[in-house]
Amino acid sequence: MPQPRFWNWAFFLGPRFQIGQILDGEFVFVALLFLFLLLGLRLLLRRDSLAFLALIGLMTVLNFVGAAADEPLAMKFLAVVFDSFVWVAVVLVLVRYGLLASVFFWFFINVLSIPAMCGLSGWQSEPSWTAILFITAITVYGFHTALAGRPLFRDELLQE
To answer: Are the beta carbons of 146 and 152 closer than 8 angstroms?
Structure first.
């Protein structure tokens, strides 16, 4: 199992504390930070494409520098390649869909990392199942809202 990076022991205090950690609000700060970084780079470089590339490059360099010292160089470069894809997705979500979509992007990235850190079985699995139920509830609510009271299958589809 991978070693947890951003860990808080409050996850093991019960569902109330787990939901409190999930709804912490740090994801709003991170989304706003990236928005301000992007806007600052856009003002500095005066071109949108250069600002996007500079932000992606800055984040990949920071990931490379922040890697473990005992990690092999080939693994660092491989991590840089995959991290650059993540940063491209982050910038595209922010630019194309806006701040609210970016907030939800960071929220779901953080919540989806909980099952990977805690596992699905054993004494430490309760935060994982809480996160999975939380995501399932949000997904079901979004699906129900998107239907807007319409039935899931129309009568025309069921007739032969």
So the answer is: no
